[in-house]
Amino acid sequence: MKLIFCSRFALCIALVAPLAVLAADRPAKPVNIEETLTSLGYHHKAASPKTFAITVKMPSSERTQLMFVSSSLNKANTREVYSFAATLHDPISADSIEGLLEHTLEMPVGAWGLHKEADQFRLVLLAQIPGNATPATLKATIDSIAQDADGVELGLTGKDDE
């Protein structure tokens, strides 16, 4: 019985210890997202009362990707970082959806979604990060989402629209 308890206790420590290290790197309260975007050098504007829009230049190209960062937090105390990869007028094919799901498994953060608006479909890549995420975490998330969304946009449309 002690061996089982010891094993479970060791497993709990192994699972909780990395979380404690991650939590130690973050401020205790939510960060001011506008100040953080400014400190990271992003030129931003209000896309809505609770969302900032930024344009991210892709490395090694002239392409850009429009990104959105929520200034408000949801019930889970996280904020959304997202980008639209394409606006489509026809439903996306099953093969394309399957490809996006496979792509999601390879991405470090985020997941693909489809947002239906009137007569069009918007393909969105969204990540949720803690409200108290460090500037480095926010920057890494923005860069990752922007690059993945831009790559899919280029593959689907061949354009630089979003």
Provide a descriptive summary of the structure in words.
- The chain contains four helices and six strands.
- The chain has one domain: 2-Layer Sandwich (Yope Regulator, Chain: A).
- The longest helix has 23 residues, at 2-24.
- The protein has 162 residues and is of the alpha+beta class.
- The termini are far apart.
- It has helices at 2-24, 33-39, 94-106, 135-157; strands at 44-48, 51-57, 64-70, 78-88, 111-117, 120-130.
- The chain has a six-stranded antiparallel sheet.
CATH architecture: 2-Layer Sandwich
Unreliable spans are: 1-23
**Anisotropy-based shape:** globular
Average pLDDT over all residues: 83
Would you list the SSEs in sequence order as H and E? Answer: HHEEEEHEEH
Return Rg in Å: 19 Å
Q: Strand share of the residues?
A: 25-35%
- Oligomeric status: single chain
Separation of termini?
Answer: 59 Å
CATH overall fold name: Yope Regulator, Chain: A
Please give the domain count. Answer: 1
**CATH class label:** Alpha Beta
In terms of topology, how is this protein built?
Blueprint: H1 2-24, H2 33-39, E1 44-48, E2 51-57, E3 64-70, E4 78-88, H3 94-106, E5 111-117, E6 120-130, H4 135-157
Antiparallel strand pairs: 1-2, 2-3, 3-4, 4-6, 5-6
